[in-house]
Amino acid sequence: MVKVRAARPAEAEYLTGLVMRSKAHWGYDAAFLAACAPDLRIRPDDVTARRVVVAENGRGEVLGIASLEGAPPRAALGLLFVEPSAIGQGVGRLLYRDALRRAVDLGVRRLVIDSDPHAAGFYRAMGAVAVAVAAPDVEADAAALVRFEAAPVPLADWARAWTGGGRAVHLGNVGEFNAQFADATLDPEQRPAHHYACLAAFYSPYPAALVLPRPVPRGWSELVCRQLGWTGVEVYDGLLDADPGLADAVRARPALAGLLTGAGLPLVPWGRTRPFGRLAGRPWRPGELRYESKSAAHALFERILADGGHPGIVLPRQWRADGRWAAARMLAARTRAGESTVLKSEHGVGGSGTTVVTPERVRAAGGARAVLRRLPRGPLLVEEYVGGPASGADEEPRDLTYDGFVDDAGRAHEVGGAVMDVADGCYRGATVGPGVVPAWAEKSLTAFGTAVGRALAESGYRGWFDVDFVADGAGRLAPTETNLRLTGPSIAFMVAARLDALRGAGHLVRIADRVELGARLPEALLDEWCAALARRCAELGAVFVPAIPTAAFEPAPWLGVLVAAHSREVLDAAEALVRAEALAVGAMFGSP
What we know:
This protein is 35% helix and 23% strand. It is an alpha+beta fold. It contains 20 helices and 23 strands. The chain has an 8-stranded antiparallel β-sheet with strand order 20-19-16-17-18-21-23-22, with helices on both faces. It has a 7-stranded mixed β-sheet with strand order 1-2-3-4-5-7-6. Strands 10-9-8-11 form a 4-stranded parallel β-sheet, with no helix packed on it.
């Protein structure tokens, strides 16, 4: 076990030798090293003045050194050197992350790094951003060194409030949450939901334990922990065969239930259920999830808008169809008027139960009744379709969401806005981060999302929520539903909060819900492939995290992934790399 401690003045000479050995590792000749020696020397007085720390293994051997120099708000990573025999073992990563943490504690908001060219790839992989050195700058020899910067920040306020500032136990009860809604559009066996339960790894920025219905690859959890700087995460998987009731499966194992609930850590589910309430010792409030209903959410939106104060929000009209024939008559009338229609079930996830029907589609199907015969049985809502931006404005986001949560004391917290990737009514992923939500939408989205949060708090709801919107052609947002649970965008927010604290502020994070694989991979090869992809993304300055690994073993294999970067260009490049490599997987087995 390698740990970081403060260096001692008596070690100064030894540490100077370590620095020189590390510098020589890159093949510099004796003359160059001699010229560098005065600048790299560590004197006893430097140890405190330059805030020098060392990385030490369990045998007391010093493996690396780092210094944090200067005064807030700007400081420098003056030294970061690793014993040549320990290079590639994570020592440099440990020291760098420790330097960022200490910088936050000191109030530093800009950390400057003048890197040896041979170390530039390391700093890029750690999240530092390369910057140009102005010609008059005498602090760095621009011909020899590469200037990087990082922006140290503490964990976001909302993230600390979410779990009380500490670690949590994550319960992947996605199937259990879905199953409580008797909706024909939801899979009764909840097989897809058990794959999505892997997102339990990301229910907070730093878990203590994951509780999962299906077995997960060991290499997956190890890679996720390495990418996000987690240690000591316990994984309890394979608790269910077919039944969606994960909370009851835990309760059926008294020793496990006692271990998870007796540690005093928050127990975080995908969403609230009656069985979860029994496991966590929380009262189950009748009607707590009533705004999961799309018609109830629509009525909530109406009440909020009736008070005024939201000029940037427009609510689509919605009607409840008493039966299929009534729905067919409504759809036929709207088709004759040349209007598109959205048909919705009361519940659904990821776009299931929501169908956009254009007049052309109705005519091609042979009429409104023919369209409805192809939809799942059950009650239907008929909703006005909100037209999008005019042609030529395709770059403007169409689907947005606001995320927040209500804490146990009834306080609503804002998390932020995201842009979703939605195709044919089906959710495919989301992107969060600075500048993602366009300026014209941000104020309206935040104000309305905050109002919904207050209303949910007053109704007695406690937990995560989001509000989904579509943008119309006039620069307004139309709220379409609330989700009283964690979601794909919420996972991206958690990872962004963790990476900002770990690597510096400003991460863009994208969750790609379903990346098709060109072939099924054995578990060992999947682990190897994901690790290689993580290294290739790091070379771009991006972070790759496999989010949903178990679907990679399905007959039609796919993978859920997260990618993160400090710029849109790097983020897009990382996603393109992941998708291309995923499709190329079949070539490993000689597939045509």
